[in-house]
Structures are given as structure tokens and as C-alpha cells.
UniProtKB/TrEMBL annotation:
The lineage of its organism: Eukaryota, Fungi, Dikarya, Ascomycota, Pezizomycotina. It catalyses: a myo-inositol phosphate + H2O = myo-inositol + phosphate. Its cofactor is Mg(2+). GO terms for biological process: inositol biosynthetic process; phosphatidylinositol phosphate biosynthetic process; signal transduction. The keyword Oxidoreductase does not apply. Pathway: Polyol metabolism; myo-inositol biosynthesis; myo-inositol from D-glucose 6-phosphate: step 2/2. This is Inositol-1-monophosphatase. It holds the Pfam family Inositol_P. It comes from Purpureocillium lilacinum. Keywords: Hydrolase, Magnesium, Metal-binding. GO terms for molecular function: inositol monophosphate 1-phosphatase activity; metal ion binding. It comes from the Eukaryota. PROSITE patterns: IMP_1, IMP_2.
Length: 299
């Protein structure tokens, strides 16, 4: 189905409304008093608030767009894949570990995929009252306080060229896998990125972990980070941010070498900010750091 068959602006408006309502629910919760559980292991956390927010969002969006499919983190069934039909791709709280620790860096991430590609993205951090939005073909915006004029992304009027890893600020995440080949590869690559050039490293300016894939992607879109490398997250973690980043002139490729056209469900991504020059060169330099190493996750 082509975008022209879907009123993307109406979808955007409904998603923004749902995001603000979700923000109220999240802020009203006291992490010290809520029930929590785990999925993969003790660091893969889910709370009753995650489930309540997803239920509210799915209900509102289904009422407004009954023909659309829905894929949410808390109701996902293993093996289900995105189809070509318009599909809401939702993470009710991206950054649940931050949330349960009362660390104010988590968000709701609402994406719409059409033909398996991001078409609308809405990310909202209620603690900072920070909203990122995009509609395919219509640009990306950030609203710092509700009711104030949105700022177009990237925030810089004239983004700087990308000049390589040695001058880059990168986002990375440990994820919930804490053993095995993927964990070992991440640890080795993190070290090589940070190490001095004299010892064979890239000596990036630094590595950042915001604790939320969506907020990492949004920061790259804003131009506050130069790139974000991720392995192990899911479509609902990146769908909204992907749309926002592309509309801000950025690019998403595979997190494994030589994957220039990675699908939304690949689970391994490299996101690079918008820049007049240097995007492809930064990607190639990052892939060279990886060498023969690859991250592999089942879908």
C-alpha cells in the first residue's frame, strides 16, 4: 500500500495525542510501588505500566484506524513478522530499566510502518516533556515543551561534515544479552572504538548509552550524536526513530558490514546523522572496526 492511500498526517496527530496520554500514565506511576517481571533475564524488565500503556495505545489507535495492524512489545508473539499492510509498531516504555530506577530517560515510541518501511514516527519522553515527530516526506521536528513551536531537525542550521570516528560521539548499548558471542563482540568493539590510535583503536570522542534505542535514534536525528550502533533490539525500538532520523537527513544501514539496505526487522543497525559529507565514509570506517565480527540475532 502506498503512502498516498494512508492519511499520514491524521496518523501522526493520533499518535501524538496517544503519546501525551501515555506520558501522563508513566509520570503518575511510582516505580517503587509497581509490579515488575522479567522476560529474557534479570535485566530484561517489564512492568505493569508497560502493559497498561500498550493497552491504552492499542485501543485508541484501533478505534481511529480499525483496518491497521498492530505490533507491540508487550503483546508480541514470537515468529510474527511485519507485513506490507499499515502497521503500528509500538514500544510503550522504551528504557524500562531507566524507568524502574527512576532515571528520567525513557520514552514511548510509536511508529507506523507501511510496506515494511517507517512512515510516521513519534517519540515522547514525559520527564523532559520532549517530543520528536516525523511524517515521511514532510520533515522531522522536536518540541521541547508542549505548546511551544516545534524545531525542525537537525537542530543545526548548517550541520557539520562527518570527519570520521576520531571526531565522533557515538551511542552504544549493552543490551540484555550478557554472555555469548554477541556480548563478546560488543565488548571488543566498544574497547576498540574507545582505545587510543597508538594502541590500534579509533579513539572516538566518547561512547554514550542513553538506555533507550528510540532516544538514541532521536539524538542522532537532532545532531546531538554522530552515530548509534545497535544489536539485539526489535522493530518497535527503532521504527519511530528510523523515520525521524531519515526525515532529518540521516541514514540507517545494517550494523553488520556491507549491509547498506537493512530491513526494519534486522535487529542490527547503524544510524548516522545528517551531514553534507562523510556519511558513507563513517559507515565504512565503522564496519572496518568490526572486521570479520558479526552480531547475529534471531527474528
Amino acid at each position: 500500500m502506498a503512502d498516498v492511500d494512508v492519511d499520514l498526517q491524521a496518523v501522526h496527530d493520533a499518535m501524538v495525542s496517544a503519546a501525551y496520554e501515555a506520558g501522563k500514565m508513566i509520570l503518575a506511576a511510582n516505580p517503587a510501588d509497581i509490579d515488575t517481571g522479567t522476560k529474557l533475564n534479570s535485566v530484561d524488565i517489564v512492568t505493569e505500566v508497560d502493559k497498561g500503556v500498550e493497552k491504552m495505545v492499542s485501543g485508541r489507535l484501533a478505534a481511529a484506524f480499525p483496518s491497521f495492524a498492530f505490533m507491540g512489545e508487550e503483546t508480541y508473539k514470537p515468529g510474527v513478522r511485519l507485513g506490507p499492510e499499515p502497521t503500528f509498531v509500538v514500544d510503550p516504555i522504551d528504557g524500562t530499566t531507566n524507568f524502574v530506577h527512576s532515571f528520567p530517560n525513557a520514552c514511548i515510541s510509536l511508529g507506523l510502518a507501511v510496506d515494511r518501511r517507517p512512515a510516521v514516527g513519534v517519540i515522547y519522553n514525559p520527564w523532559q516533556d520532549l517530543l520528536f515527530t516525523a511524517v515521511r516526506g514532510r520533515g522531522a521536528h522536536m518540541t521541547r515543551i508542549r505548546g511551544t513551536p516545534p524545531q525542525r531537525l537537525p537542530l543545526a542550521r548548517s550541520p557539520r561534515p562527518l570527519t570520521g570516528l576520531g571526531s565522533a560521539l557515538l551511542a552504544v548499548e549493552w543490551g540484555s544479552d550478557r554472555e555469548g558471542a554477541n556480548f563478546d563482540a560488543k565488548a571488543a568493539i566498544f574497547r576498540q572504538l574507545a582505545a587510543s590510535r597508538e594502541s590500534g583503536g579509533s579513539m572516538v570522542h566518547s561512547l554514550r548509552s542513553l538506555g533507550s534505542a528510540a532516544l538514541n535514534m532521536a539524538a542522532v536525528a537532532a545532531g546531538q550524536l554522530d552515530a548509534y550502533w545497535e544489536g539485539g533490539c526489535w522493530a518497535w525500538d527503532v521504527c519511530a526513530g528510523w523515520c525521524i532520523l531519515e526525515e532529518a537527513g540521516g541514514r540507517v544501514v545494517g550494523g553488520n558490514p556491507r549491509d547498506w539496505d537493512t530491513p526494519l526487522e534486522s535487529r542490527v543497525y547503524l544510524a548516522v546523522r545528517g551531514a553534507p559529507t562523510g556519511q558513507e565514509e563513517l559507515v565504512e570506517e565503522f564496519w572496518a572496526v568490526m572486521g570479520d565480527r558479526k552480531l547475529e540475532y534471531s527474528v
